[in-house]
């Protein structure tokens, strides 16, 4: 299974997967760029998209 281009967990906003920051025993860590300011329920998450770390378990 490859790494998806975009991820959304439960009711979170949509994130685009960026560069890999590292990897270890639990998986790989990537930069995640928020690409929507609302979730599936149209709940707003602030005014500006932001970046965060995303862990992909293997």
Measured as a percent range, the helix fraction is under 10%
> What's the rounded overall pLDDT mean?
76
Q: What sort of overall outline do the alpha carbons produce when their principal axes are compared?
A: elongated
The ordered string of helix (H) and strand (E) elements is EEEE
Beta-strand content estimate: over 45%
Biggest beta sheet attributes: 4 strands, antiparallel
How many individual helices? 0
Q: Can you count the beta strands?
A: 4
Low-confidence stretches: none
Distance between the termini: 9 Å
Strand order of the largest sheet: 1-2-3-4
Structural class: mainly beta
Rg, alpha carbons:
12 Å
The gist of it:
The chain has 58 residues and is an all-beta fold. It has no helices and 4 strands. The chain has strands at 6-7, 15-24, 27-34, 51-57.
